[in-house]
Amino acid sequence: MSSHREAPEISKDPVADSADLYAFVSPDRPDHVTIIANYVPLQGPDGGPNFYEFGDDVLYQIKVDNTGDGNADVTFNFSFRSELTIPSSFLYNDGPIESLNSPSWNRRQFYSVSMTSGGKTTKLGTNLACPPCNIGPLSTPDYPKLASEAVYSLGSGRKVFAGQRADGFYVDLGAIFDLGDLRPLANLHATFGLPKLAAAKGVNSTRYLNVHSIAIQVPITDLTRGGAHPKGALDPAATIGVWTTASRHKARVWDNASQAYSDSGPWAQISRLGNPLINEVVIPLGAKDRWNRSAPAEDSGFAANYENPELSNLLPILYPGAFPNLAAYNATKAPRADIVAILLTGIPTGVVSPGFQNYTGKVQADQLRLNVAIPPASKPSPLGVVGGDVAGFPNGRRVFDDVVTIELRALAGATLPLVDKSFKADGAVSVVTDGLDGSDEAYLSVFPYLGVPTSGYEVRVA
Amino acid sequence: MELYNRRQVLTGISAGLAVAGVAATMPAGSASAAAAALVKDNNVVKESSLKDSPAAASFDGTAEPVVAYIRDASSGEISLFVGSREVTLHDSSIVAKLASAASKGA
């Protein structure tokens, strides 16, 4: 998945597991950027009585590089705390929760948010309430209203929300991890000598599952170099690089006296996410935990995985005869400069179109790069730049972008002609997909954009 | 950035290495005094924390736990975790005493 349970260690620590990251110029406030970092992936909505929440012992951060050196220039810090209002009850709530201060709501969570910029940390909000999880029609009878109460204005045009959302990411996990048998192309799969599979539509593995989102909307000038408003899309200061991290204190001891864990030591990063699917399918299993603990500025050490992606080498083997041009290119062992540019440095001016760039310089760093001077598309394509819409991935990422298909096609060779005019993409590239044309969950047209989470009562049987 | 495996820190065990870990709660003043004494008699090699973390180390008079972590007793190195800080010392004598105590407790 984008980054759900993508590495051995973090798969055992869901509250610190960064699952998806979005960054886009807000369609309804184009002078503001929205960044959403999702954690606690794959929530079964009926998983009570201890429903999902952020980790009180985890430091969540959203980081922005606006100087191209791979290091954070602006950081948003989020810390959470939980409390019980009815500790004698086993219930999450003992009556309908109709407001954020409902006396029926037992297990609550609050958070603080601050911004570090120019070496100075500024508190933006404290004791902000997360909404409850969406339990069902009796417990959370008007969930959209309840959640909207948890959207806070922080002043200076900033907004924040932290709480449960429908997972907007869509992917056919069952097919991809069954040796890459993409259902629409299953009839072309090698199947390792086993009976042939029939072609079929994809199955959305995240359907009806929820996540916990940290969403913040800030003026563009909060994020750009020197606080400047870029003059245009070709202004070098127009592109920012975004990633999210989760950190824990280095030491933890169970303290019998307080019947609680005691954490100490500096924060140690244990999860990070910039571009989608990188630690999922680009970084090998033996390096995934190290990647999660490293910083984007150190990503040149992982460049070989981007230059010769394992999945690009596998596609001609899994689908014999479907990708002859890719197979021939792979045989040359030439590095995939297109993949390196898209994911590690950004795309220079003129490569995609004369008026587009999201290049941050030579420093290789896995960041979600967003040119903030490119306005939202009036008719967005879920295929983003590959679909002719430069306001979408890999220029930032919107909640509906089909990043699985975009990256599959790029790895299959769709973007290679951008840097090697002699290469002709295989005909099969245009039909490579996991067979999903969008999430089944409705997105919102306003902040925080990700849809209302599925309630536990309403959870469907697949 | 430190690249300790968090699970190794939590368990206090690293494969193939002699390890001893202790945790103690002491008044902050005592912790500071103890650390200062160690600094005086030994070499403090580093003190680290995430520079962009909003949680600063505090010695504001409240009791704070101190966790000691020895990854490799033969190195004579001991890490102290307190608040949001890590103080690393080289003190073969202390490390040997802790390693000995740990082995006796095994």
Which descriptors would you attach to this protein?
heterodimer; A: 462 residues; alpha+beta; seven-stranded antiparallel sheet; five-stranded antiparallel sheet; 26% strand; globular; B: 106 residues; 32% helix; 30% strand; disordered N terminus
Quick rundown:
The complex is a heterodimer of chains A (462) and B (106). By secondary structure, chain A is of the alpha+beta class.
Structure notes:
The complex is a heterodimer of chains A (462) and B (106). Helices cover 14% and strands 26% of the residues of chain A. Chain A contains 9 helices and 12 strands. In chain A, the strands form 2 sheets. In chain A, strands 3, 4, 5, 6, 10, 11 and 12 form a 7-stranded antiparallel beta sheet that branches. A 5-stranded antiparallel beta sheet of chain A has the order 1-2-9-8-7, with no helix packed on it. In chain A, a hairpin with a 2-residue loop joins strand 1 and strand 2 (29-43). In chain A, helix 6 crosses helix 7. The longest helix of chain A has 10 residues, at 403-412. Chain A starts with 19 loop residues before the first strand and ends in a 50-residue tail after the last helix. Chain B has 106 residues and is α+β, with helices and mostly antiparallel strands. Chain B is built from 3 helices and 5 strands.
Chart the SSEs and their pairings:
The complex is a heterodimer of chains A (462) and B (106).
Chain A: E1 20-26, E2 29-43, E3 58-65, E4 74-84, E5 107-117, E6 120-129, H1 143-148, E7 152-155, E8 158-166, H2 173-176, E9 210-219, E10 239-255, E11 260-273, H3 278-282, H4 288-293, H5 303-307, H6 310-318, H7 324-332, H8 337-345, E12 368-371, H9 403-412
Antiparallel strand pairs in A: 1-2, 2-9, 3-4, 3-10, 4-5, 5-6, 7-8, 8-9, 10-11, 10-12
Helix pairs in contact in A: 6-7
Chain B: H1 6-11, E1 20-26, H2 28-41, E2 43-48, E3 64-70, E4 77-82, E5 85-90, H3 92-105
Antiparallel strand pairs in B: 1-3, 2-5, 3-4, 4-5
